[in-house]
Structures are given as C-alpha cells and as structure tokens.
C-alpha cells in the first residue's frame, strides 16, 4: 500500500523522528521512579540516623559479644571423665560432652528423615570435639548404668573414629569411682541430697567437679562444700548453663553502662504447665527393688522410707532429696540475675506459697513466691513461680530510665518518666511505643527497632537464625569452659563463689517458706538467721 | 460501534482513560515491589526465615526445608530482594513489562502458597487485614496478570521507544 500523495495516518503518527510527545510517552513513568528513590532514601536514612544517634547515646556497638575463640582442645591433653547419675539430666550433659546413646542416635536419625527441620542429630555431630573420654559411670539403677556404658562406647559422635574409645567401667558406689586412677574429673548429676557429699569426696580424691544445681540441699552442706572446694584448688563448675547465653552478656553490659538508670525492681518467674514440668517424671517400666539400690539412694536423706518408685523417679517433689522450686528453678533465675547484676547474697528473704494444684503427696509447694531485699543496692528481687500455668511472664529489670526484658533475646524499652532520655523523647528520636533496641543472639547484634513488625518479632523471639550456620548448645559451652579451666587454669563462670551465693539464696527462700518467717543473711557470721 | 481494542501489529490500543488508569496501577505495583526490595536490602536483620517457618498447607514441608538449609535460605533471601527490586523497577519504568508481570505473579503465588489464608489456618506473623482465601497477595497477583495482557508500557513507558520502532518498521515494510 504505497501512496506517495496520501500517507496513512499510522505512518504519520509513527515516523522515526522523535517528537516531544514521543519522549513524554516513553518517559512518562520515570518521575515516579525518581519520587520513590527520593522517598526511600529519606525514609531509610532517617531510620539509620535515628539508630546511629541511639547507639551513640548508649555507647553500645551493634556487634554481638565476641564469639568464643578458645583454641581447639584437640591438641591438648585428653580428659577422662566419670559420670555420677545418668538420669535425664546426666544423659543430656553427656551428650553435650559429645557422647550419645545408640538409641538416641537412631531416634534422631528417624526424626530427621521424617522432618528435615529436625536437625538435632546434625547439631550434635557438628558439636566441637572436646577431647574427652568417659571412663567411669555410676548409677544405682542398673538400666541407667547400662545405658551410660553404651553411651560411653558409642563412636557415632563429634570427632568419631579419631581416637579409640576405652569404654567406661561401671561402679556400684560413687566412692569406688572416685578411687579410680583412670578418672580426672567427674560430672555429678544426681538428686540434690547427694551433691554435697559427692563434691566434697571428689575434691578430696583430687577430681575436678562439674555439679548440677542446686549446689546443696541444706545451708550447712553449702558451707562444707565451699570450704572443701576452696581448699582443694581444683576446678569446680556449677551447672548453670545460662552463664553462656549471649543475651546475658549483653544484658550485663547494659546494666554496667547504666542504660536503665537506677534499677529498683527485678522480677523473675517460672511458668510451667505440664506434669513433667511439675516433676511428675515417667517411671521406668522395668524399675523395681531388684535393680535399684534403694538403701544407697536414701542414705543421706533425713527421713528413711520404704522403697518407692515415685520417690526415686520424682525425687524433686520431696524435701528429703531436694528443695523443690527453690533449688530447681529459682536457682536458675537467681543465677541469671546474679550473672547480669552481681547481686550476691540478699539481705533478707520472705517466701510463701503452697501445694495448690499437684496435691499428689508431694511436700514441696507448686506455687511459690520469694521477695529478696538488697538495701545496699536499693533494689528488690521478686521471684514468682507456678507449675500449673504456662503464661510467660519473662524476666524484667525495671529502672528509672528504661526497663529490660531478658530471655533468649533481649528488649530494652525507655520509660516515659525517664530523666536521662527526656530530651530524646521530646525530640522524637526515641519513640516510646517501640523498644529502644533489641538484641537477638545469633543475629548481627543490637538492632534499634524501627517498625511494629520488628517489635513483634523481638517480643516473641521469633527471629532465630541460621546465619552463623549452627545453633549452639549452652550446656556444651558450659562444660567446655570447665574443661578449658582444668587444662589451662583459671576460674569458670559459675565457680564455687557463685555457687555458694546461689545455694545460700535458695536456702534463705526455703527456710523462710518452711519456718513461715522472714530470714536474714548475717554477713559477719556468714549464716542465715 | 467502534471496538475499543483493535489488533494492530503488536499493539493493543486503549481509550486514554483506560490507558492512564492501567498505567497508574502498573506504577503503584511497581512502587510496592521496588520499595519492598529496597527495605529488605537495607535491613541487615531481614530474612525470609520467619515467613517460611510459619508455612502451612501442602507445600509447608518444601518451604520449611528451604528455611532449614542455611545455603538455600541465603539464595531465597537474595532472589527475593533482587527479584522484588528488578520487577518493581521494570514495572515503574515500563521496560520488560510482560516478563516482570509474570515473574511478579510467580513470586506472589509463592507467598500465597506458603501461607494461604484458609479457614482454620492461623499465622504467627501479624497481618494488617482480615482475609479468608483471598488476600492482598492474590489480588496483586491478579492485577499483574491483567497488566500482562494490556501491556501499557508500549504506550507509556520505555517500551514505547522500542514498540515505536517495531510498529513503524512493520508499517513501512507493508
């Protein structure tokens, strides 16, 4: 269709020469992109400026606390471990040490096949090889002792195949284990009524000790253990693995810098709602007087009773063997606060509570409150626990300028009445509806929260991350610290001083509850009065 | 009556009001994608892990597996950020619109499938509205499919320059 005289309208419109109209059509939407670029820049840079301002004011870095850089223990001496008590906790500690029972490995392999999300076995195998072997086991329940032997000999482990596992020898009595020259250090994971005697005898036999909390069952024992460990010069670590939590290091830094202002109230809680959480542990089907050494079990207990499966498996429910919530869970909570604030032993304690839900024959309370006073620090520590309601109440440090909630993660919120942050609140640098900042362990460090969604994550602790490639087991780190101190000297983080403070504080609570009165610590006589 | 859409060589003609409103829609979606990408790029704490972790329905195993692998998660995060930004930029500037529309629709479909708002499914992440079956991801997805048919970039956008050349050479060839 070629007609020189009459050009088609199409051809007229679409000549190859660019007109102003063409350019407008082609670039019509570019200004929107420009507008977005400008707005995005403004928004992002104002958020960054706000964050910088806050971090400068706080004198905090964005960094996580330095990661462990301890030299690899493989080059150093092998440590031979004896385990006393191979119940749930003992087995779990030994796994943190790098030894798992073949059944556990099989079960976790199956779990991983069913659910790729379950990385328990892989996490275990990726654990650092601590260069230890288990050479002795002692449990007064035959089935558990056999389980411990199989665990000690299982080479499916971190660093498996690198060295010949000697396997462990079973001892019927812990004193026989302590007498063995094949053992350098012991882990005590028995019920609390055995802790004192075993620790004292272990250090007397020259063995280093990792003992589960609570340090002892009574005040008197705490003094004896303290003296014995101090005298021995051996390495003692109490099993408060919270000492390894990154968020606690950061919390300590925040308190040290005074970012919360004067802290006047610390609230900490236990919130559980399951039979196992309330120490109604399962009773092994094959257990009986024929395979449990009952006489030995109750030897240091104040009251002797006929054989009882309930008492053997659920010992935490009776004061004969432990101190209930005090020694089991207040001990952790107190130690966490002590780690963060260096509180030491309180001036006084008042406790109350009762057996309100689990009226199953136990004599320890299942609802328990304690108020500790620290007049020299101008603060009160409140502990509140229930074993039959799971509502999470967190762990709160309340200061005049800001409050801090510490769990696995950490959230700091400025107080509306703050003196320190008054100007920043007025100038809108600090937004009171959002936390001042949060810290997610494993993430890149401190973040100043800039959106409601982030606030939500921070509170729920949903942001867990694989950025560093692996999740770390705190008990593993706690054991590792103990082993490092054995090899190189030095004091672990939960040494006998901290252990003594923990024990006395818990016993003040127990005494107050049992005697129905306020109790005090006499720092001169070093006695609860 | 004149048909409003006629098929000329590689071209759909639209009434001005239709063209302007569809272009407006394209720019808005482009803006949304581009800023979502930028915000993630500049937030060192962002990761798709939380979204994937809460996944439900028949594909949840797949999405959770992506999350469970550090390497895959890194790739997913990277693809997300750069995918969002490139799609957004393409829609805003009007270049490569059809590819951007389809890629955007696929991305939105993945978001939708990872956490579909079905009856009985509740999610831990906060949502800004109330949904059952239809949510904003699905609506934005449908809008992108509409845009992919109308291709407004050929009239308003960088594609106009390319299209102009093509059409004119086609006409001249006749």
Summarize the structure.
Chain A is an alpha/beta fold and 529 residues long.
Q: Give the name of the CATH architecture of the largest domain in chain A.
A: 2-Layer Sandwich
Biggest sheet descriptor of chain A: 11 strands, mixed
Number of domains of chain A: 2
Number of helices of chain B: 7
Question: Based on DSSP secondary structure assignment, what is the total number of beta strands of chain B?
Answer: 2
What's the CATH C level of the largest domain in chain A?
Alpha Beta
Proportion of strand residues of chain A: 15-25%
Number of helices of chain A: 18
Largest interface: A-B, 39 and 44 residues
Structural class of chain A: alpha/beta
Q: Which regions of chain B are unreliable across 5 or more consecutive residues at pLDDT < 50?
A: 1-10
The major pleated sheet of chain B works out as: 2 strands, antiparallel
User: How far from one another are the termini of chain B?
Assistant: 28 Å
Strand coverage percent of chain B: under 5%
* Global Rg of chain B: 19 Å
The CATH topology of the largest domain in chain A is Dihydrodipicolinate Reductase, domain 2
Q: How much helix, percentage-wise, in residues of chain B?
A: 55-70%
> In terms of structural class, how would the helical and strand content of chain B be classed?
mainly alpha
What strand order characterises the main sheet of chain A? 15-14-13-12-11-7-10-9-8-16-17
Based on CA atoms alone, the radius of gyration of chain A comes out at 30 Å
């Amino acid at each position: 269709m070629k007609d020189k005289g009459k050009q088609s309208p199409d051809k007229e419109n679409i000549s190859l020469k660019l007109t102003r109209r063409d350019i407008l059509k082609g670039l019509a939407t570019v200004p929107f992109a420009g507008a977005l670029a400008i707005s995005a820049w403004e928004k992002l840079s104002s958020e960054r400026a706000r964050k910088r301002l806050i971090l400068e004011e706080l004198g905090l870095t964005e960094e996580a606390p330095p990661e462990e850089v301890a030299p690899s223990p493989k080059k150093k001496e092998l440590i031979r471990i004896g385990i006393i008590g191979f119940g749930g906790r003992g087995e779990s500690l030994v796994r943190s040490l790098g030894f798992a029972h073949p059944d556990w490995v099989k079960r976790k392999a199956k779990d991983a096949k069913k659910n790729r999300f379950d990385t328990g076995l892989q996490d275990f195998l990726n654990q650092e090889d601590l260069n230890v072997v288990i050479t002795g086991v002692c449990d007064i329940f035959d089935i558990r002792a056999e389980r411990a032997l199989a665990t000690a000999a299982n080479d499916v482990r971190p660093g498996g195949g690198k060295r010949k596992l000697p396997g462990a020898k079973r001892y019927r009595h812990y004193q026989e284990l302590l007498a063995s020259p094949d053992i350098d250090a012991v882990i005590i994971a028995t019920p609390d009524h055995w802790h004192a005697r075993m620790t004292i005898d272990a250090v007397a036999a020259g063995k280093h000790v990792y003992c589960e909390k609570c340090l002892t069952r009574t005040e008197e024992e705490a003094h004896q253990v303290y003296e014995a460990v101090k005298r021995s010069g051996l390495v003692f670590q109490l099993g408060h693995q919270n000492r390894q939590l990154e968020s606690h290091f950061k919390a300590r830094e925040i308190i040290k810098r005074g970012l919360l202002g004067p802290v006047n109230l610390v609230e900490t809680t236990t919130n559980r709602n399951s039979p196992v959480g309330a120490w109604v542990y399962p009773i092994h089907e094959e257990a009986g007087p024929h395979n449990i050494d009952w006489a030995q079990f109750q030897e240091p207990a104040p009251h002797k009773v006929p054989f009882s499966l309930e008492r053997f498996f659920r010992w935490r429910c009776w004061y004969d063997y432990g101190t209930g919530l005090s020694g089991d869970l207040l001990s952790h909570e107190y130690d966490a606060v002590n780690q963060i604030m260096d509180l030491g032993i309180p001036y006084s304690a008042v406790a109350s509570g009762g057996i309100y839900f689990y009226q199953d024959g136990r004599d320890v309370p299942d609802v328990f409150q304690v108020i500790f006073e620290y007049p020299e620090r101008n603060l009160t520590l409140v502990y509140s626990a229930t074993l039959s309601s799971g509502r999470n109440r967190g762990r709160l440090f309340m200061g005049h300028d800001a409050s801090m909630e510490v769990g696995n993660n950490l959230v700091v919120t400025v107080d509306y009445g703050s003196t320190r942050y008054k100007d920043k609140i007025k100038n809108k640098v600090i937004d009171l509806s959002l936390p001042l900042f949060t810290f997610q362990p494993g993430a890149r460090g401190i973040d100043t929260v800039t959106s409601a969604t982030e606030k939500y994550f921070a509170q729920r602790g949903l942001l867990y991350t694989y950025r560093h490639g692996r999740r770390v087991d705190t008990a593993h780190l706690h054991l590792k610290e103990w082993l490092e101190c054995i090899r190189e000297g030095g004091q672990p983080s939960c040494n006998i001083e901290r252990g003594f403070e923990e024990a006395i504080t818990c016993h003040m609570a127990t005494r107050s509850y049992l005697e129905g009165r306020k109790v005090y610590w006499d720092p001169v006589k070093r006695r609860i009065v | 009556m004149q048909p409003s859409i006629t098929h000329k060589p590689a071209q759909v003609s639209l009434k001005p009001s239709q063209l302007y409103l569809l272009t407006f829609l394209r720019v808005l979606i482009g803006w949304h994608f581009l800023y979502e990408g930028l915000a993630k790029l500049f937030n060192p704490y962002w990761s798709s892990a939380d979204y994937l972790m809460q996944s439900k329905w028949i594909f949840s195993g797949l999405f959770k597996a992506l999350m469970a692998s550090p390497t895959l998660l890194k790739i997913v995060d990277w693809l997300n950020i750069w995918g969002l930004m490139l799609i957004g930029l393409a829609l805003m500037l009007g270049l490569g619109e059809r590819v951007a529309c389809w890629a955007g629709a696929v991305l939105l479909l993945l978001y939708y499938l990872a956490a579909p708002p079905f009856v009985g499914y509740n999610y831990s992440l906060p949502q800004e509205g109330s949904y059952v079956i239809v949510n904003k991801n699905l609506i934005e997805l449908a809008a992108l499919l509409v845009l992919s048919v109308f291709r407004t970039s050929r009239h308003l956008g960088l594609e106009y320059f390319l299209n102009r050349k093509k059409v004119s050479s086609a006409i001249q060839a006749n």
